[in-house]
Amino acid sequence: MPDYRQYWQDNIARWSELYLDISHGHEKLEAPHWLGKLYNSTIAKHEARLMRQRYELTARFIDQNVNAGRVFADIGCGSGIFVVEALKRKARVCAIDFSDQSLALTKANVERYVPNGDVSYHKLDVSQDELPRSDVGIMVGVAPYLSDMDSFLDRILTSTDILLIQYVDPYHWANRVRRLLPFLNVRRLIFHSPRDVAFAYTQRGWRLLERVPFGTGFIDTVCRRDAAVGSPDRMQSSPPVKSPQPPEAER
What we know:
Layout: H1 3-11, H2 33-41, H3 43-65, E1 71-75, H4 81-88, E2 92-97, H5 100-113, E3 119-123, E4 136-139, H6 149-156, E5 162-168, H7 173-180, H8 194-203, E6 206-214, E7 217-224
Parallel strand pairs: 1-2, 1-4, 2-3, 4-5
Antiparallel strand pairs: 5-7, 6-7
Helix pairs in contact: 4-5
C-alpha cells in the first residue's frame, strides 16, 4: 500500500467531526517517534490553522459554482465536509474516496446534516480509476500524494467542467528543505511545479482562472476554455490569468 494510503487510513478516524477542530497535530506520522512528536507540537499546529483557510476558500468556490441541478464531485471526500456543503445547495453529489473509512464517515455526516441529500458514493482510486461525470469538482488534499499528474489530469479534465485543485510547490522554501532532507517529509508529499501544471491545463484545452497561494503550495481554479463560470443563476465569462509558458527549470 503506497504511503499516502496508509497515512490516510491511520488518521481519518483520529479527525474530529468534519475535521476542522483537530485535523492536524493529532496525527500518526511515518517518522521516528521524536520527530513525529516534534512535528505535531510545532508545524502541525500551524497546519491546523491553515485548514480553516482551506475550508473558507473551498466553501467560497462551492458557493460560486454549485447550485440545484448541478452535479458536484468531491474527489477525496475525506470526512464529507464539502459533500455536506454541496448538498445544502441542492446539488447532486458524487462522494469519491479510496477509503472505506472515509466513505463511512462521509455517509454518517450526510445522514446527520442533510439526510435527504442526493448523493452517490464511489470507492475509487483516483490515481488509476475513471471518475464519474460532474459539472463541478474539487480535489483538496489529494494531488500532493499523486506522482503521475499527467495521466490523472487526462482523466479528471475529461470528467468535469470546473475544478478546484490543491498542489504543493517544490520551490517554496519549506519544500526545498524537505527535498534536501527527505526525512523531514513526514507525509511523503509529492510536489508539482506551478508552471508545469498551468501548462498542462493549456495543453488540454483548459484555462487557469485563479491561483491562490496556500501554505507551502497553491490552490487553482480551472475550467474548460469555453465554459461559463459560476452557478446557473449567476453565470459569467471569466478571463484567464496570464497564459503559462512551456515548462522549464524554475529557480
